[in-house]
Design goal:
single chain, about 350 residues, alpha/beta, 6-stranded mixed beta sheet, about 45% helix, phospholipid biosynthesis, transmembrane helix
Length: about 350
């Protein structure tokens, strides 16, 4: 009795293909039994599904690579232990002390200068937009050594949010909340207003919208390529010989990520500033974004994948899911009619 009850419940939970089709598209005669070989003939749908299982390029974009162990014998293990002592007992305390002293000196100079020179920082003669692939929040720290960029960044809580509100806003940085759909329009308007003022600092945008593991590059958002100004591509490639600089924000806080970097031997990366690009005649903003992405991928040796990085944080739209279900239902019923 229990097995028959479970079978009945499963039958009730089974989706009905007719729910995804208009009434006039249903077959008039009762279809024959559907065999496995009939389903296998629905090649477009099953090919896409099998490809997603075998070659899951989306998940690989956000997967951290585990370091290969090298302390596998009695000769190398003592050296590994010595390295742990040096990295955690010497390098990490020295780096933490240097960071603390640097922050204290910075805050001591920042607030007086910020209030004394407020409104007197109009030094630039033109506005530019810099776009780069994104691996970690330290991308911004590395690129900020070139000039005072106004970065477009996700709002963060904690001490990172404090720095965003007190320091980074002084250079014209713009914050957004990816979970708020209405905030996208506000952010787009702020970007347009920013580029209208030639005295503002150049924009630094990570058009992927999320951190990728520096082996792949996902689709670029088109907002950075609709501003009507020069777009300067920047390619960033980290050398993983000492540490993997990818920040997996779904599994690790930025504080722990920073500790992991500071307890490594070093963080090594190459940065290439490529030729500024302009929107060509008859070219759409999407095609422009794809062309710049191709340049960055080629220079940094990254693999291009046709995925939206926001899928890392948000589930696909119900409309997209229902459309896939409708296409599959039509394919099944078409096969039944042929039989």
């Amino acid at each position: 009795m229990a097995s028959s009850s479970v079978a009945a419940d499963m039958e009730l939970d089974r989706p009905n293909l007719e729910d995804y089709l208009p009434p006039d598209s249903l077959p008039q005669e009762a279809p024959r039994n559907l065999h496995l070989r009939d389903l296998l003939d629905i090649s477009p749908v099953l090919t896409e599904a099998a490809g997603a299982i075998v070659d899951d390029s989306f998940t690989r974009c956000f997967k951290s690579n585990s370091p290969e162990p090298w302390n596998w014998n009695i000769y190398l293990f003592p050296l590994w232990c010595l390295g742990v002592v040096i990295r955690y007992g010497i390098l990490f305390p020295l780096r933490s002390l240097t960071l603390a002293i640097g922050w204290l000196a910075f805050f001591a100079a920042f607030f007086p200068v910020h209030f004394l020179l407020k409104g007197q920082d109009k030094l630039r003669s033109k506005i530019e937009v810099f776009v780069a692939n994104h691996t970690s929040m330290i991308d911004f720290i590395i690129l900020e050594q070139m000039t005072a960029f106004a970065v477009i960044m996700q709002k963060h809580p904690g001490w990172v949010g404090f720095i965003q509100k007190t320091i980074l806003e002084s250079v014209g940085c713009i914050w957004f909340n990816r979970n708020d759909l209405r905030d996208r329009e506000v952010t787009a308007r702020k970007l347009r207003d920013h580029v209208q003022q030639p005295d503002n600092n150049p924009l630094l945008i990570f058009p992927e919208g999320t951190c990728v593991n520096n082996q792949y590059t996902v689709m670029f958002k088109k907002g950075a390529f609709e501003l009507g100004c020069a777009v300067c591509p920047i390619a960033i490639k980290y050398n993983k010989i000492f540490v993997d600089a990818f920040w997996n924000s779904k599994k690790q806080s930025f504080t722990m990520h920073l500790v992991r970097l500071m307890t490594s031997w070093a963080v090594v990366c190459d940065v290439w500033y490529l030729t500024p690009q302009y929107l060509r005649e008859g070219e759409t903003s999407i095609a422009f974004a794809e062309r710049v992405r191709e340049m960055i991928a080629a220079r940094a040796g990254l693999k291009k994948v046709p995925w939206d990085g926001y899928l890392k944080h948000n589930r696909p739209s119900p409309k997209h899911t229902e459309e896939k279900q409708r296409i599959f239902a039509e394919s099944v019923l078409m096969r039944l009619e042929e039989k």
